[in-house]
Every structure is written in C-alpha cells, then in structure tokens.
What does this fold into?
Amino acid sequence: MARRQIATRVSQLNGEGALAVFARARELEGQGRSIIHLELGEPDFHPAAPVVDALRNAVASGRDRYCATRGIAPLREEIAHYLARTRKLSIAPEQVLVAPGCKMVLSLAMMALIEPGDEVLYPDPGFPIYPSFTRGLGAKAVPFGLVEKNRFQPDLQEIAAKITGKTSVLIFNSPNNPTGTVFDQHALEGIAALAVKHDLWVLTDEIYARILFNGEYKSIWLLPGMAERSVIIDGFSKSFAMTGWRLGYAVAPVQVIDAMDLLVLNTFTCAAEFTQVAAIEALRDTSNAVDAMVAEYKLRRDLFLQSLAKIPGFRCHSPEGAFYAWVNIEDTGLPAEQVQKLLLEEAGVAAIAGAAFGAEGRNYLRFSLVSARHLLEDALDRIHRVSVKWRGVTA
It folds into this structure.
C-alpha cells in the first residue's frame, strides 16, 4: 500500500539561518546566559505613537471586518502619495496590492510571474527566500554574485552571460540584505537594459529604501521601459518598525495586480483592516519617526565600524543602507560557522554565518545593527576579548 507523501515542492524550500541562530541564542538565555541579539533583521524601535493610536481607534470603531482583497482604497491611495513624495514615482492606486507581510507579497508576485521550468536570476548573497521560493515553484534559481572587490555591486557581464531563453524574472533588493549595498546608477541602468532586451520581469525589493545613509533613493521603476515590467515589493516592517503587524504591498502593472488579486482570493482573502488603517498614519509620518530612526542607524553603523576595525581578522565595507554589517572574517583563518559559534557560545553575541545568504557569503558574518549603541559597544568588547581564539592564526 502506497504511503501518503508530502508534496515534493516542500523539499525544495529552505529556512532562514537567522531563525536557527535565534533559537540557539534563546536556549542559552534560558540557561541564564547574557546574549546580545545581532542576528535578526528586526528593529528595536516600535511604531510611532500616532500609528498605535490609529490602530486602537480602528479596532474600537469596528474596523475588523472582511475588506477589499487588494487592500482598502484609502491605504492604496496613501501608498501612491507616499511613493510620489519619497521616490518620485507616479503610481495609480489600481497598481497597488496590500497583503499580510512582504514575504506574502513577494510570494504572490512570484506565483503570478514564474512558470515551472523558468530560470530566475537572484543576488548572492541575498535574501534566502528568493531562491527557496523559486525552487518551490518548480523553476531554476540562478545566482549572480555580489562580491567585495566590486563593492558588492552586480557584475552586469555575469548577469548577461547567465540569461538564457528560459530566463523570465530577475530579482534584486537595494539596499541589499545582507551587504547594505545600494545599487548605483550604472547597475540599475545595466539591469534595466538587459530586462528590456530580453523581455524580463524585474522584482525590485525596496523594503529598505527609506533606510539610506546618503543621497536619495532611485527606483529602477523610473528608468525607460521599466514601469511596464517591474514589480516593487515594499512594506512596513523595516522603515516603520512594524514587523509583527505583517503588512506589505506590491506596486506593479495592473495586469500583474489583477493576477495577484486572484491569488489573494484563493488564499488569505485580505489583510486585517485595522492594521491597514493604522498604516495610513505610518505613511504620513507626522512625527518624523522614520528620519529619526535612520539617523540612529547611521550613528550605530559608524560606531560599529570604528570599533570593528580594531578586531583582528575582521573587516567591513561601509554599508550605504539597511541596518546590517557584512563582515569579512577570512583573515581569522577560521570558517565563518566556527567564528559564529565562538561568538555565540563564548562571547554571548548572536550573528549569522554568511553562507545562510548564499555561497558568496562563506567568508562573512552578518550583524544586524538593531540593538542600542551601548549594547553594540558591549558586543564589540565581547568579540574583541574572544578574538584571542584566532589571533594566533592571523599572526
């Protein structure tokens, strides 16, 4: 008698390294150990007071019913205004779809655009869900490298060489997780030219677009020929410190939004109305909470890099955005996994070995700069003390 089996697509998925490290860190805390958490990409900030008030008022006034599958109209209109104000995009509300979290928006977009047998280009190192969900859809995930000698900018020649007749989608995020790199104009124009030439969809993950340390954010959507072939993925977790609220959105051509809307109808029906109402207040940002948060992240980055430079075997290219430090540990002479374990088990500092973000990350650790400055200083002191474990190797 045949055994009932789990669908094979599940075996193509992988988890997130950050969550595995977090689980072990919590286990150590349960044993009474002091752990500084620099593994999760979760801001230590909370939403601004007007956002919390808006949520409370929305629930109290009964905004807890089923609502429009693609998101309530006032929020989609506010997203259009917000993107015009912060990214100079001219978007109609009909081009916006709201869902519970950026991962959900990303997966809906990928389901709408990717066929089994397609090839999908994605950055390595990069967010591990890009290749994972690609494989889950029966497509082939094809990495393009972001390497230190190229300042973690994409190699356009490499991307061009990897495009085949089966390539349908190119995914990237800028600022990049985990490197903190903001793709420059040359990279954006090169990717756009390849997308137009080969008729590719581009998924541009802009979740960290507001967490930028210099200049103004430039979306690939604005380049010639890109508005009709781009899908912007964004949301409220990072810029507005609303991680547990689970709210993200896509901006795309109307036919893509219509396809995603049909998928919503067949899956989760709608995002919670009261969180959507509160998100309108977040976008208006009347208390300038986003700018204050970004200024603090910049201070943390500068503090972290300054002290990191004193740790033997460590080096880090200064991130231009997001809230991560992508630290090269090759000169320690130890594998990144061993350094990660030393830091967690002996120093009480949780970070992630870079291979969790792809093969190009094998000599790196990612630190999330999501703890207060005094905790970052404490973490760096702890790392410096434990670095005696590899100083003999580097000498």
About this structure: Residues 13 and 96 are 28 Å apart (CA to CA). The chain has a mean pLDDT of 96. DSSP finds 14 helices and 13 strands in the chain.
